[in-house]
Design brief:
Two copies of one chain form a homodimer. The first copy, chain A, is built from ten helices and twelve strands. Helices cover 34% and strands 25% of the residues of chain A. Chain A folds into two domains: 134 residues, PurM-like, N-terminal domain (60s Ribosomal Protein L30, Chain: A); 151 residues, PurM-like C-terminal domain (Phosphoribosyl-aminoimidazole Synthetase, Chain A, domain 2), CATH 3.90.650.10. In chain A, 55% of the residues are buried. In chain A, helix 2 runs parallel beside helix 3 and helix 4 packs across helix 5. The C terminus of chain A is likely disordered. The first copy, chain A, is α+β, with helices and mostly antiparallel strands. Chains A and B meet through strand 2, strand 3, helix 2, strand 4 and strand 5 of A and strand 2, strand 3, helix 2, strand 4 and strand 5 of B.
Chain lengths: 317, 317
């Protein structure tokens, strides 16, 4: 049997994951056809991960699926949208069944977990790279933008940013002692449910893909404001503090990417609601600063002068 | 100024093309947000073109934009959908302004011509490749599928398939004598308006990307039928017949890809409607065969035994 595009798609991708009643016609025709429930707006985002740039060249297919899925679905979380559908375009140098099997298995598992059907795809020969386009639904006018932050708003971050960056360092050193850190890099959790809850709380939201400071700066630039961040408030995980020095841990938390946590702002009158969200979501949400008039991100707190923040967020080029 | 992702996006992509009232929030946030007009279904398709695989490595950016756009929007045409929005994910080895300028200019022109806004994108470092995800709107239940062909239906094709394949041969030979053939390869025309008209005529539609025989076989396989094609009915352009022998011309028309014409089936009671469509669209639409019980594609007509159809449609792997 020839390993042509159609055979591979049939073998690995036809049976993937979540079955949605909204899919009138699934993959296999020129387009998929989706029903659109009334009373929603459509959120759309596209993301590419390239081997050797966004993940190590020796990554197994399952890990690539998890990271690419998280990067894509995290953008829906950051808008407060509920997952609707996604497409995947995969280029690979040749058919590698040991890579494709865990890739499609993990993608199928995630599709079910997040209730988002795969409605189309493309398979081409080329350098290993993956582009996901995700679609989500949100009530009209309620999408959470980056541009809504106001002076005086609190700045929050979910989870423990920096853990994924530490995990990447550990993988490069072939270290296996800190499974939670490696897991943060290999299996980031898009904060979809928290994002939807934030529609009634947050004034602005962004997901942390390039590093907290870099992404918070995108948020404040979009909002025409700045932020000050108390570095001593930054949430550092227990494993992170066992892994490295407090200074290095803080640098990772502020500047390393790949966590796909949410950074958001909210009026200080919403502090009780954020507390309730922490309890219902079972995820840490930490107030780390506030929005100010002055553009840019100002850091303060003990040890701030010793921080190594040269790589202030990931530059794609 | 650093040529980082954001600078390049701002320079080349922020001002692209068509402005639609349906775009509530354009590119630049975590997702774009689109209004969804009531009473439509959403068609979605994703396509990747890789340098050296789907187009020659020395293609200028304008040609890559045109071919990738046609490949993507042609899938909307094949569903009878009207263009709604699209996203683009570009990977390139480094910033090449002489490539990016014509690429973004042509993309902007096409976006306006087809009234389809660019609502999101991604720019990454990697081998030159481009993934477009297109979205279209179609009245509920009216999307044109591949699976609707019935025994006895006529088989039609738009335009002059094979011209693009001839153009690719000419480009490889650096020949410049047949501008219409080269143009068919460099600037294929997605048949969007014809596709929408076919909603009231066609029983099944596919766009011809892999070659007429290969794509007609996808259509008949999906429909659980076969087709017979009278090779003497195949439309061959004047330039094609000047360029090569009748036999070679016919082989290209049957088996070469890249034209993005539409191949469709229709009940024979629709022949007058197809004639009217030819007049209103100003594009050749030729009846080349009919749908039969026996699976597969049977060719008949004078000269059929001498045809070189070894490369019966493009195999991606």
């Amino acid at each position: 049997m020839v390993d042509d595009e159609f055979t591979i798609i049939d073998q690995y991708f036809s049976a993937i994951g979540w079955r949605s009643d909204l899919v009138a016609l699934g993959p296999g025709d020129d387009c998929a056809v989706l029903k659109v429930p009334e009373g929603f707006e459509l959120c759309v985002s596209t993301d590419t991960l390239v081997s050797g740039v966004h993940f190590p060249t020796d990554c197994d297919g399952g890990m690539v699926a998890r990271r690419a899925f998280a990067a894509a679905v995290s953008d829906l979380a950051a808008m407060g949208a509920s997952p609707y559908s996604f497409t995947g375009a995969l280029t690979m140098p040749g058919i590698d069944h040991t890579w494709l099997f865990p890739f499609s298995s993990e993608l199928s598992r995630l599709s079910v977990e997040f209730e988002i059907p795969l409605v189309g795809g493309n398979l081409s020969r080329g350098e290993l790279a993956l582009t996901f386009t995700v679609m989500g639904l949100v009530p009209p006018g309620q999408a959470l933008r980056r541009s809504g932050a106001s002076v005086g708003d609190d700045v929050y971050v979910t989870g423990h940013p920096g853990d994924a960056g530490a995990g990447l360092l550990l993988l490069a050193q072939a270290g296996g002692e800190f499974p939670a850190l490696i897991d943060a890099y290999q299996s980031p959790q898009p904060r979809v449910k928290i994002g939807q809850q934030l529609r009634k709380i947050a004034s602005a939201v962004i997901d942390v893909s390039d590093g907290l400071l870099a992404d918070l700066k995108h948020l404040t630039d979009s909002s025409g404001v700045g932020a000050k961040v108390d570095v001593n408030k930054m949430p550092l995980s227990e494993e992170m503090l066992l892994f490295t020095s407090p200074g290095k841990a803080l640098s990772l938390a502020l500047a390393a990417g790949d966590d796909y946590e949410l950074c958001f702002t909210a009026n200080h009158s919403c502090r009780d609601q954020v507390e309730e969200l922490v309890l219902s979501a079972g995820v840490a949400i930490t107030r780390v600063g506030s929005i100010v008039d002055t553009p840019g991100i100002a850091l303060f707190g003990e040890g701030v002068d010793a921080l190594d923040l040269e790589h202030n967020g990931y530059q794609h080029f």
